[in-house]
Amino acid sequence: MNTHETRAAQLFLSHHDFVKGVALKYAPWPGLMDDISQQVFLEFIAKEERWDLEKDLRPLLATMTRHVAMRLWRDRTRERPEVVQKLADHIRLLAEERDLPPRYEEEIGILRSCLMKLPEKSRELVQLFYYSDVSTPEIAEQLDMKSDTVCRALSRVRDKLRDCIQRELNQGGHAHA
């Protein structure tokens, strides 16, 4: 590595939590965040001579991350056409049901019930990230945690909520508020 590549790698690593936070926001698939951030790193280093390393790199890294996420999503959906078909079927069903009363009131009640079952720390993460729109690096700073720990914790919380909602729906869908 030459000195410019080394400097670029060091700068990227100093922004790694930021890239992971952006990747998490754009990752349409569980577990895709790490793939996205690794690909952004590779592309950033491959084109390092183009970048002015004295400028703020966050806008560039955010754009690169968004583009990589969209590209990986396109690639994954090409590899798994059944996912695209399920999404298309779901959208078609929603269009057919547009004249019916909203069916999400029950799901919202179940979500609220599942949120209340979470530990306090998990509810705090949900509140900060989804309701207060605080970024993962900012949450990490507020809660004295590492940014990647916050990302993993949010991922686990989403998994727990998904499982809880599915269980409730399978048991008849009655939320216990």
Structural class: mainly alpha
CATH class category of the largest domain: Mainly Alpha
Number of extended strands: 0
Instruction: Return the CATH architecture of the largest domain.
Output: Orthogonal Bundle
Largest sheet: none
Percent helix = over 70%
Low-confidence stretches: none
Q: Into how many domains do the coordinates divide?
A: 2
Radius of gyration: 20 Å
Separation of termini? Answer: 59 Å
Kindly report the CATH topology of the largest domain. Rna Polymerase Sigma Factor, Chain: A
Count every helix, treating DSSP H or I runs of 4 or more residues as helices. 9
What integer is the average pLDDT? 80
Beta-strand percentage? Answer: under 5%
Write the H/E string, N to C. HHHHHHHHH
Shape: flat
Describe this structure as you would to a colleague:
- This protein is mainly alpha-helical.
- It has 2 domains: 1-100, Rna Polymerase Sigma Factor, Chain: A (Orthogonal Bundle); 104-177, Arc Repressor Mutant, subunit A.
- The chain has helices at 3-14, 16-26, 32-46, 58-79, 81-96, 104-117, 120-131, 136-143, 147-170.
- The protein is flat.
- The mean pLDDT is 80.
